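Tutorial handout. Part one gives the primary structure; part two gives the three-dimensional structure as tokens.
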Amino acid sequence: IHYELLCQKLAGLYGNMKATVKIRREVDYGLNRVREQIIRKGDFFYPQGYTKIPVRIPNTRKIEHISTDELEQAMLTIVSKCIGTTMEGLIAETVRAYGFNRTGAKITEAMQMAANNILTQGKIRIMDGKVVSNHPETVEKAPSNGHAKKSCTQCGNQLLGSELFCGRCGKKNN
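Part two.
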């Protein structure tokens, strides 16, 4: 949660409509008391030991109150569901998923930062102008019915039955 959003949500408990200096002091005091149970990344607070950021959609928050980590997770989810999207398409789809009607400078900057992060971290790659998820190549053991489950050697997408071409990236698999 973003610090400012936390202050706004807790203001009502103190009988205020806005996050005043008094409210911020109380929030700071409370955060200090639980500092062993939380992690602070910039203006965002996460529970200690978190491994995956939940994507909260539908969204009523301002872009400033959505962490880059959450945007990255949303983009990875979209890439896993979309076939053949471009980087611009991924950003546009993420903007739509969060319910933003217009893309101003702040939204564009936040989305581009998240997309660049997952590209730099190797979670996605660009192949022939399309965004592809970077799943390691896996071939699962054959189930009890004797049919082997296979994954695409290019993108890791699970292949169905005797599928020769991957439905996600189009690569021919043997």
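Part three, for discussion. The two ends are 46 Å apart (CA to CA). The first helix runs from residue 3 to 11.
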